[in-house]
Structure formats: C-alpha cells, structure tokens
Design goal:
By secondary structure, this protein is mainly beta. Helix content is 4%, strand content 47%. A four-stranded mixed sheet has the order 2-9-8-5, with no helix packed on it. Strand 32 (353-354) and strand 33 form a beta hairpin. The longest helix is centred in the N-terminal third of the chain and has 16 residues, at 2-17. It is rod-shaped and about 190 Å long.
C-alpha cells in the first residue's frame, strides 16, 4: 500500500504541474484550387511539441516538427469545400495535447485539359482507321472531342476521342491533311486544348470495271457489222486498255476511245472446226496503267455454226502456150473449209486435159491447136462439203507457134 501510494502521489504531482501547449487558431482560411500554401501554426510549450492535422484540403500536409502546413491545393479540392480542418499540438505528456479547429474554404479554378502528343499519320485510301486521341484534365471534368481537317469519311467520337472510319478512295487527291483536334471540358468557365498533326494519304489503285458483253451466235463467213462495242470505266480515272482472248478466227478487238473498244472482222469458214457448231469461250480483259496495274475480266460465249464456203479460184489471166510445148499448168484454188475438191474444165485446147483431183492441166500442144486459138476456157471446182459448193473461172488460152529468128547475112 505504501508503494502504491507513493506512485500515485507522483502521478498526481505531474498532473498538477504540466500544462498543454498553447496554440493560436489561424481562423478561417480561403484559397483557390492550384494555390501553393504556406501556413504556419503557432504554438508554445516548455516541453518539445509535435504537430498533426486532419481534414486538410487535398494536396496539403503539416510538418510534424515545425507545424508548417504546405503544398499545392489539388485541382479537384473545391468539390469537398469547406474543409473542417483540425490541428493537434502535443508535448507528449498526459493531458498534454491541444486541438484547434477552423474551416478551410477552397474555390474552384478550372484549368484546361491537355491532349497527349499525336504522331503524324500515314495511311492509304480504303484503310480502316482506329486512332485514339488521349487527353487529361486535372479537374476531372467531362471532356468532349472534335476534329477539323480529317481525311474524307473519318470522324471522331465526341465522348471517346476515337477517330474511326474508312478513308475515301479520292482522299489522296488532297493529301497531306492538316488535322486539328480540340478537347473541351465542362468546367466554369469551359476550357479547351488543341493539337495539330499531319495526315498523309497515299493512293490505292482500284481495278477498272468492264461492262459484261452479250453472248453471240453467228455463221461462218459472217462479217461483224456494225462492230460489237465493249465499254469499261476506271474509278480512279486511269488510262485503260482492252484485249480479247479466244476470239473466233478472223475477228479482232480495237480500242476506239478512252473507255471503249470494238470487235470486228469476218469470221473464217474454218471457225466451226469441222463441227456443226463450235462454242468459243471469249475472255475480254481491261487493264489500267497504274503501278501495280489492275484488271477486270468478263467472259462471253460465242457460238459459230458451220457454213460450207465455195472454193476460191485464183484467176490465172490469159495463158499463152506454143505448139509442141509440154503443158503442165496448175489451177490455184483455196477452199476455206479445207474440203476435198474436184476439178473440171471446158474449152481447153485439143490434147490438153485437167486432173480432176489436183487441178493440173497437162498435155502436149499439137499443130492443129492453133486452128481455133484463142480458146475460152472455163474451169469449175466443186467441194465435198455437207452442202457442196462450186466456183468457176473463165480465161483465155492462146496457142501459137514459136517465133524463129533467122540470121541476117550482109555481104
């Protein structure tokens, strides 16, 4: 009991002699967001003291040794204003703490948002674009985005800042583009930031467009009149050229304007290839002059029906032979269908005859062949086609004596 009594007396004696620190209340504080603060809390006590604080505006703190409240008030601090600030000063002894309270008002100050750096953009026509524009706002305001000068068919999300779309095929004509992106907050007053960057758009070649030609059905020997018109266009305005593959023999394609070509000619008599009819799968191709070049192709079906053509005999003109001559005269003939031919002749000089298979006129002219010279000869050639055709030619054949030149003797 005596020990306990002694200790209690010691504690009570200490309580009777220790006084808490004396602290001066700085009173109500008023500042704006973004302000740098330096507020000294004044306190005195014979013993060493320490400081602590609660409910200070965002961005501020107190030095536990010196009692200096310092820092920069946060740009978002106004939304929690006023702050019921408390500062406690303690000497570390029992009942040795003094706490003061005061209000700290923070007024709103809007600062502009800031757009992050955007690198120059390089794209091609028809590219799908997804470019995110990023921005920050120290006030944590709601931001809206806009953009000027974007390549055609691109747009920016008002709330997201995402630039999207597919670049127009004509966009390279006006490249490069000077793009200005703007971000605006909803503070009071509203503030904004802009950023400029360059957007280069390269050309993307598009294939020309060929109009599908109509299918055709003709006979051998047909002349294509009027010519068949083939038309095409190029969406980029490039120069274009035409070609045709597997046209029926005798036909050609010629370009007649910047956007058209014509198929013309006369279908040969062997176009049906010895069949009643033959079908050609014709490919029409149009190609632009870009690098790399692009093409479009359309197919057309062209049916050719067999038609037997008459043989074509070459006119030999007037034939002159002499008595005693051994004749071997060939009648020249062409059959467009390649048929077998049979020859006949009327009015030949006596002792001459024509080989019915080859058309070779042979024989030896006798003296009497001069009696009725000149002769009107008619040669007829007949083919062996499905509907046999023949051709004839008439020419003159003169038979005469060889001229004899006697030497002249001068005395």
């Amino acid at each position: 009991a005596g020990v306990w009594k002694a200790k209690l007396d010691e504690i009570l004696a200490a309580c009777d002699t220790n006084e808490p620190p004396v602290v001066t209340n700085p009173g109500t504080q008023s500042d704006s967001e973004g302000v740098s603060v330096s507020l000294q809390i004044s306190a005195s006590d014979p013993d060493p003291i320490s400081y602590s604080a609660a409910n200070l505006p965002d961005g501020l703190s107190i030095n536990p040794s010196s009692g200096l409240i310092s820092g920069t008030i946060s740009q978002t601090a106004a939304k929690n204003s006023p702050y019921p600030a408390q500062v406690s000063v303690s000497d570390g002894m029992l009942f040795g703490t003094t706490t003061i309270s005061f209000d700290w008002n923070v007024s709103d100050v809007n600062v502009p948002p800031a757009i992050e750096n955007i690198q120059p953009q390089n794209s091609a026509e028809n590219d799908d674009i997804s470019l995110q524009v990023n921005a920050t706002d120290d006030d944590e305001d709601t931001l809206t985005f806009s953009a000027d000068g974007l390549p055609p068919d691109l747009s920016i999300g008002t709330n997201s800042g995402l630039i999207t779309g597919t670049i127009n095929y004509e966009a390279s004509n006006d490249s490069p583009y000077s793009v200005t992106v703007t971000v605006q907050d909803d503070g009071n007053p509203q503030m904004d930031d802009t950023f400029n960057f360059t957007w280069n758009v390269s050309n993307t070649n598009r294939a020309p467009e060929l109009n599908t030609p109509a299918n055709q059905h003709d006979d051998e020997g047909t002349t294509i009149d009027p010519p068949i018109l083939i038309t095409a266009s190029d969406p980029d305005g490039d120069d274009i050229s035409f070609e045709a593959i597997s046209l029926p023999p005798g036909l050609i394609i010629d370009q007649v304007s910047a956007t058209s070509a014509e198929i013309s000619g006369t279908i040969t008599y062997d176009a049906s290839k010895g069949q009643p009819s033959f079908e050609y799968d014709v490919q029409i191709i149009v190609t632009d002059d870009s690098d790399p070049a692009l093409s479009d192709q359309k197919n057309m079906r062209w049916i050719i029906d067999d038609v037997n053509a008459a043989p074509e005999i070459t006119d030999p003109g007037t034939v002159i032979s002499h008595i005693g001559e051994e004749v071997a005269f060939q009648i020249e003939v062409n059959d467009p269908d390649g048929d077998n031919l049979t020859f006949s002749a009327n009015g030949l000089p006596p002792s001459l005859s024509i080989d019915p298979d080859t058309g070779l006129i042979i024989g030896v002219l006798r003296m009497w062949a001069m009696d009725e010279s000149p002769y009107t000869v008619k040669v007829t050639v007949t083919d062996d086609g499905a509907s046999p055709q023949n051709s004839s030619i008439v020419f003159n054949w003169i038979v005469k004596m060889y001229e004899v030149f006697m030497p002249v003797i001068i005395h």
